[in-house]
Each structure stands twice: as structure tokens, then as C-alpha cells.
Design goal:
The chain is α+β, with helices and mostly antiparallel strands. The protein has helices at residues 93-96, 102-110, 122-133, 137-152, 171-187, 194-200, 205-216, 220-238, 244-250, 256-267, 271-277; strands at 7-14, 27-34, 37-41, 44-48, 52-56, 62-66, 79-86, 115-116. The radius of gyration is 20 Å and the shape is globular. It starts with 6 loop residues before the first strand and ends with a helix.
Length: 278
């Protein structure tokens, strides 16, 4: 991402989110103004919706995956966001090296696995993001400092991921792992074989298994199950389905027994209990 500014602030208004897992050297803070779906952050998945703000650390793989209805031919849905990108190690390095910035620097290092801004801070931080968008020059820099001050005062944050693949991964390896991720995310609702996914990475199945476990700390089956159960949870919470069996098959499971077993192993609850809870 090359720009002639130290802080990049941009808005997006599109039919759906960018569909591929990606990473970049800048820290990213995104306010979802409109849109919902599944956030893949590192090796973890979360449901997201409008009125939420997320921070992603430098080189942290992520993608906002829009719900399937966004891709239907007659869809009138859209997404809207405000995002700020900044790199403390580039043009801003002199600023972040100041003694007065130690607390901010420590905060960003502590939360390099990202976080969702708690609801009680949403109004304050969204207002500061809007202020950044509506300013430029030194005014924008001052707004940015106020945003950092506000963020660094937030306590008790839950990281978005605790087991991301190594940040030091080179670009070629990063692109290969991302292509595997993307293939699984786009095809989780169909039968997927080890051979098919290995082919996406131009590897033999045996080499692929070692490679995927090394870079993600998951087996292919455990990661695929996690993606499928995440989608099932979303359908159970939305109520827009024709029963638990329909959800199981639409998420790529070929038997209800297997679906129930995997669902409970990942969530700790049966699908019926999960549905009743929400």
C-alpha cells in the first residue's frame, strides 16, 4: 500500500466486501457502517455486523466475508466502511519513538493479534474515525493522536486470534496459505477432498498436510470443520433456515450424526441447545 500520506483514511461503499484473505504491513482500524458476515482473522472466525469496529495488527491475515445473499444476482445489499491504515515503523516511526508515545506503542504491541472495540467505546471511537475522515493536514494528525490516546485507554480486550500463522512468513508463503484459506472459505459447503486442496497449493497430499499444520497449527479437517460450524452457528442464530438437518447439509456435512458430534466438540453445545440459547 503506497501513498503519499502518513495516515490513510478511506471509505468504501460496494456490493460486498473484498473476498480474499490478505495482509499488509499497516495496522488497520475498520468501522463497519453497513454489512454483515464472517470475519476471518488469523486462524479464527467471528460473526460481524454493522455498528462494530475492528483493529488488525500489522501483517495479520484477515478478510470480511460477506453473507451469501450479497452475491445473489438481484441483491440490493451493500457494505459501507471507514478505515484508517497506519504504520508505526515507516513514516510515523519518529512519532512513535517519542517517550510520550510509549504507552500507545506498548498497547499496539500487546494487541497485535487485533481486537473488536467494546460497545461502550463505540461512540467515542467511531466519532474520532469520522473526524479523521473529515480533516486533513495537521488537523488530521491531531485527530489521529486523539484516536490513539482513546484506543490505548481501552482495557480487557479479547484478541481476535491466538494462533495465527507466523508474522515473519514471506510474501510467497503468505500468498500460498491465503490461496488455501480462500479455496476452503469459498467451497466449505461442498464436499472437499485433501487431494483437491493440495492441488490448489501445487503439493502432494502428504506434503500439504505437513505444510498446512506447520503454518496454521490446524489439520485440514479441523480447519474445515471450524469454518462449517461457524456458518452453522450463524444460521442457527438468524432463524432463517428449515431446521437443523437443512443447516447441516447446507454447511457441507453429509450426515446429521457427524454434524451433531462436530458441532458439540467445537461449541460445547448441541445445535438445539445453541439455537435455544440465542
Amino acid at each position: 500500500m503506497s501513498h503519499d500520506r502518513t495516515i490513510i483514511v478511506q471509505t468504501e461503499e460496494m456490493p460486498h466486501f473484498y473476498t480474499y484473505l490478505h495482509r499488509h504491513k499497516e495496522i488497520q482500524l475498520t468501522w463497519i457502517q453497513e454489512g454483515e458476515g464472517t470475519l476471518v482473522a488469523g486462524m479464527n472466525m467471528h460473526l460481524f455486523k454493522a455498528g462494530e469496529i475492528y483493529l488488525f495488527g500489522a501483517n495479520m491475515p484477515h478478510v470480511f466475508k460477506s453473507d451469501p445473499e450479497y452475491f445473489e444476482p438481484d441483491s440490493t445489499k451493500q457494505i459501507r466502511t471507514i478505515t484508517v491504515f497506519f504504520n508505526p515503523n515507516d513514516k510515523l516511526s519518529a512519532l512513535f519513538d517519542l517517550p510520550e508515545m510509549k504507552a500507545v506503542q506498548a498497547f499496539l504491541e500487546d494487541y497485535d493479534c487485533g481486537f473488536k472495540v467494546p460497545q461502550e467505546f463505540f461512540e467515542d471511537i467511531s466519532g474520532r474515525l469520522q473526524g479523521l475522515l473529515n480533516s486533513d493536514g495537521i488537523d488530521q494528525l491531531m485527530q489521529f493522536l486523539q484516536l490513539l490516546k482513546t484506543l490505548s485507554n481501552v482495557n480487557g480486550l479479547e484478541p481476535l486470534t491466538v494462533n495465527s500463522f507466523p508474522r515473519s512468513i514471506n510474501d510467497n508463503e503468505g500468498m500460498r496459505v491465503a490461496s488455501i484459506y480462500n479455496y476452503i472459505i469459498q467451497n466449505y459447503n461442498k464436499p472437499i477432498t485433501l487431494e483437491e486442496v493440495a492441488e490448489q497449493a501445487y503439493m502432494t497430499p502428504h506434503a500439504f498436510c505437513r505444510y498446512f499444520k506447520k503454518h496454521t497449527r490446524y489439520t485440514l479437517v479441523s480447519f474445515l470443520n471450524k469454518v462449517r460450524i461457524n456458518e452453522a452457528c450463524k444460521l442457527l442464530m438468524s432463524g432463517s433456515h428449515n431446521g437443523i438437518a437443512a443447516i447441516a447439509y447446507s454447511c457441507g456435512f453429509n450426515s446429521i450424526t457427524n454434524f451433531n458430534r462436530v458441532f458439540k466438540s467445537i461449541t460445547g453445545k448441541s445445535p438445539r441447545s445453541y439455537k435455544e440459547q440465542y
